[in-house]
Every structure is written in structure tokens, then in C-alpha cells.
UniProtKB/TrEMBL annotation:
Family: Belongs to the YjdM family.
SUPFAM superfamilies: Prokaryotic SH3-related domain (SSF82057), Zinc beta-ribbon (SSF57783)
Name of a matching Pfam family: YjdM
Membrane-spanning parts: none
Domain Protein YjdM N-terminal: 4-32
Gene3D superfamilies according to UniProt: 2.20.25.10, SH3 Domains (2.30.30.40)
Protein YjdM C-terminal domain ranges (all copies): 46-112
InterPro entries hit by this protein: YjdM, YjdM_C, YjdM_N
Protein name: Zinc ribbon domain-containing protein YjdM
């Protein structure tokens, strides 16, 4: 029988396998092999409406009219947004738009140029 890794949460040695998961009976943490605490450096992949991977500094275009929360103005379809920054959260693009200022957008409403 091979030695199972210790729990990445509490470092307990009493881990066991359940199908594809490893489980710690002491803290109830569940994980898949290869995703221990040291491998959390995986970056979140953000994709646009067409499935293209977005990166910091990309230029994107808005694909539909978007209401600006707290304002009566609308961000028009086709508006070009330069030099985006990717952030964590529901609105995963942080940017500055000419005529509107700083704004956060959802990646599902933009396409990469």
C-alpha cells in the first residue's frame, strides 16, 4: 500500500482515499491528488465571449449595450477598452473607459481584438 500525503489543511497523517478524492477525517478537508497547498499557484483563466483567453494589457470591445449602475448613461456596443486588468470576483475586468472613468466589466460581455 502506498503512502498517502498528509492533509494540506491540518497536516494530519490519517488521510484516506474515496474514489478520486483524498479525505482528512480530522478536519473533513477533501482534495484531489496533485492539488495540495503548495500547488495553489494556478491562475484563474479568464475568457471573453468567444472563448479567447484574456490577459492583462489586452484591448477588448464591448459586445452589447451595458447599463452603467448608478447612472442614466449606457456603455454602447462596440466601445473599445484598452489596457484591461484582470481581477478576482464576479466582474473580472478592471479598466478605464474614456468618457466613463474607472469601471469593472464581466468578461462575458467583451471580445478580444
Amino acid at each position: 500500500m502506498s503512502k498517502l500525503p498528509n492533509c494540506p489543511e491540518c497536516n494530519s497523517e490519517y488521510t484516506y482515499e474515496d474514489g478520486n478524492l483524498l479525505i482528512c477525517p480530522e478536519c473533513a478537508h477533501e482534495w484531489t491528488p496533485g492539488t495540495e497547498a503548495g500547488s495553489d499557484s494556478e491562475e484563474k483563466v479568464v475568457k471573453d465571449s468567444n472563448g479567447n483567453v484574456l490577459q492583462d494589457g489586452d484591448t477588448v470591445t464591448v459586445i452589447k449595450d451595458l447599463k452603467v449602475k448608478g447612472s442614466s448613461s449606457v456603455l454602447k456596443q462596440g466601445t473599445k477598452v484598452k489596457n484591461i486588468r484582470l481581477i478576482d470576483g464576479d466582474h473580472d475586468i478592471d479598466c478605464k473607459i474614456d468618457g466613463f472613468g474607472a469601471m469593472k466589466l464581466k468578461s462575458e460581455f467583451v471580445k478580444k481584438i
